[in-house]
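Blinded run. Sample ID left blank on purpose so nobody reads anything into the name before looking at the predicted structure. Input follows.
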Amino acid sequence: MGQGGGPRRAQAHDEELGRAVAAAQEGDEAAFAVAYRLVQPGLVGYLRGLVGTDGETAEDVAAEAWLEIARDLGRFRGDGAGFRGWTATIARHRAFDHLRRQRARPRPTALEQDMLELPGPHSTPASALEAISTERVLALVATLPRDQAEAVLLRVVVGLDGPTAARVLGKRPGAVRTAAYRGLRKLGERLGLDDGVTDDGPGALGESR
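Blinded prediction complete.
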């Protein structure tokens, strides 16, 4: 995909990511840069789904997340896959903070209202999503209910496995698997169809048109 790595690519890099994180925790700045390079594309893709497709906004939220990641890096315990999930959790919290700061904006989206109320196996559709552009993926995902959309983003764009995605969302793995399955099934039905998807791309994830 244009920006996300997809689950297979992310998993292929997790061994390298785990080594880079371990070295970064020992003070190796070059290793931290490697970890950043491996994680950032998927993280920004995920954030674009949460806060909208304004690239600068997603990049700004990601930058806030990386400040926290760098600050708390020494506290992290786990492997490359675990680090990917940990960074997604931090980014998700910063996205909520961003949406809360927008409360004064007129006519907030339905998804933003939903987020403000929140407490602080390989499939054919997933494979197809990996092969198309990030903009097209976000346009398709934005048509899903919020729970399905975020589950798909974490699985396909960030590349998390089911249990890790469940920890990020604070839900049971079964619930996340079901949401991802239903979302991917709906996307599979819509792939190749242009109805309901515009060239302007989606707003925030799950936003009604």
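Unblinding after everyone has recorded impressions. The CA atoms of residues 25 and 74 lie 6 Å apart.
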